[in-house]
C-alpha cells in the first residue's frame, strides 16, 4: 500500500458509560471501551446482543441514550471520519467498478485518476475490473470493491459490519486474509462485527465478547497472534489459535446459556 493513512497517537474511539435504549428496551450498555489507534478490534456475540448498535454509535448514525462516544477525540459525524463496509456491498449498479471508487475519491475531495483507482483495486486483489459493471463481477469481488471504496478515503478508522457473512467459505477466507494484510499495512484502526468466533480470532488484535441484550462486555481479550510473517495455514493450525478460539467460544456459550 503506497498511501498509508496518518495514524494519530490518540485513542481512535472512546466509549464512556454508553447506553442505547429503544423505548423500554436497553439494547446496549453500559459499555466503557477505548480503542487505541491502529488496533483491530472485533466485536463478537450472539445475535441481537447489540454489536451493530455499537458500530452505528461509533459511526455517528445513532446517539447514545446515556454516556458519550468519541472518535478521534470528537463526537462522530455520520459519513465523516470513518470508512464503512456493510454485509451487502451497496455499490451503485449504474456505475462501473472504477466509477464507484472514483465517486468515493471525489466525494472526499481527492484526485480520482485511473491510476489511483487501479491502485486501490489492486490492494484488494482486483485487477482488470475497473471497466466492468458491478453486476458483471461476483459477490466476493463486489465486497472487495466495497473494501477498496472504504480504503479510498484517508480515514484513520474503518468500521465493518459482518462484511463477509454472505460469502461462501472459500471466498470468505480469502477476503479475511486480504483484510488482515491490508489493515496491518495501512495502520488503520478497525472495528469489525461478526458472529464467527473463528473470524474474530483470525482478524482481531483484540476481541470483545458482548453479553446477550443488553450488550455489555463479557470478555476483553488481546490476541497476541503474529500479524505478519506467518502463513495462514501455520496461523490457523497453531495451538495458540485453537486456545484463543476456545476461550472466545466458551465466553459466548456461557453467556447465552447462563
Ligand atoms: N432501531 C431499533 N429499534 C428498536 N430496537 C432495535 C433497533 N435497533 C436494534 N434494536 C434492538 O437492539 C438489539 C440489538 O440489535 P443489534 O442489531 O445491534 O444486534 P446484533 O448483535 O448486531 O445482532 P445480529 O448479530 O443479529 O445482527 C436487538 O434486540 C434489536 O432488536
From TrEMBL:
<protein>
    <submittedName>
        <fullName>Taurine transport system ATP-binding protein</fullName>
    </submittedName>
</protein>
<keyword id="KW-0547">Nucleotide-binding</keyword>
<dbReference type="GO" id="GO:0016887">
    <property type="term" value="F:ATP hydrolysis activity"/>
</dbReference>
<keyword id="KW-0813">Transport</keyword>
<dbReference type="InterPro" id="IPR003439">
    <property type="entry name" value="ABC_transporter-like_ATP-bd"/>
</dbReference>
<dbReference type="InterPro" id="IPR027417">
    <property type="entry name" value="P-loop_NTPase"/>
</dbReference>
<dbReference type="InterPro" id="IPR050166">
    <property type="entry name" value="ABC_transporter_ATP-bind"/>
</dbReference>
<dbReference type="InterPro" id="IPR003593">
    <property type="entry name" value="AAA+_ATPase"/>
</dbReference>
<feature type="domain" description="ABC transporter">
    <location>
        <begin position="13"/>
        <end position="237"/>
    </location>
</feature>
<dbReference type="Pfam" id="PF00005">
    <property type="entry name" value="ABC_tran"/>
</dbReference>
<dbReference type="GO" id="GO:0005524">
    <property type="term" value="F:ATP binding"/>
</dbReference>
<dbReference type="InterPro" id="IPR017871">
    <property type="entry name" value="ABC_transporter-like_CS"/>
</dbReference>
<keyword id="KW-0067">ATP-binding</keyword>
Amino acid at each position: 500500500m503506497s498511501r498509508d493513512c496518518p495514524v494519530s497517537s490518540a485513542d481512535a474511539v472512546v466509549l464512556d458509560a454508553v447506553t442505547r435504549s429503544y423505548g423500554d428496551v436497553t439494547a446496549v450498555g453500559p459499555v466503557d471501551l477505548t480503542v487505541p489507534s491502529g488496533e483491530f478490534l472485533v466485536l463478537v456475540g450472539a445475535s441481537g446482543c447489540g454489536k451493530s448498535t455499537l458500530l452505528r454509535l461509533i459511526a455517528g448514525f445513532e446517539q447514545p441514550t446515556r454516556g458519550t462516544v468519541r472518535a478521534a477525540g470528537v463526537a462522530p459525524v455520520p459519513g465523516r471520519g470513518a470508512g464503512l463496509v456493510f454485509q451487502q456491498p451497496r455499490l451503485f449498479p449504474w456505475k462501473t467498478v472504477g466509477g464507484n471508487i472514483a465517486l468515493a475519491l471525489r466525494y472526499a475531495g481527492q484526485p480520482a485518476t485511473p491510476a489511483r483507482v487501479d491502485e486501490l483495486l489492486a490492494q484488494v486483489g482486483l485487477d482488470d475490473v475497473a471497466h466492468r459493471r458491478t453486476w458483471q463481477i461476483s459477490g466476493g469481488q463486489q465486497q472487495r470493491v466495497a473494501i477498496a471504496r472504504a480504503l479510498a478515503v484517508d480515514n484513520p478508522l474503518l468500521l465493518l459490519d459482518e462484511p463477509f457473512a454472505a460469502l461462501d467459505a472459500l471466498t470468505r477466507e480469502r477476503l479475511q486474509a486480504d483484510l488482515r494484510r491490508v489493515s496491518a499495512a495501512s495502520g488503520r484502526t478497525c472495528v469489525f462485527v461478526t458472529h464467527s468466533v473463528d473470524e474474530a480470532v483470525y482478524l482481531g488484535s483484540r476481541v470483545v465478547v458482548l453479553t446477550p441484550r443488553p450488550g455489555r462486555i463479557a470478555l476483553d481479550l488481546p490476541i497476541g497472534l503474529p500479524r505478519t510473517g506467518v502463513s495462514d495455514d501455520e496461523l490457523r493450525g497453531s495451538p495458540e489459535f485453537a486456545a484463543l478460539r476456545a476461550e472466545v467460544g466458551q465466553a459466548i456459550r456461557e453467556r447465552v446459556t447462563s
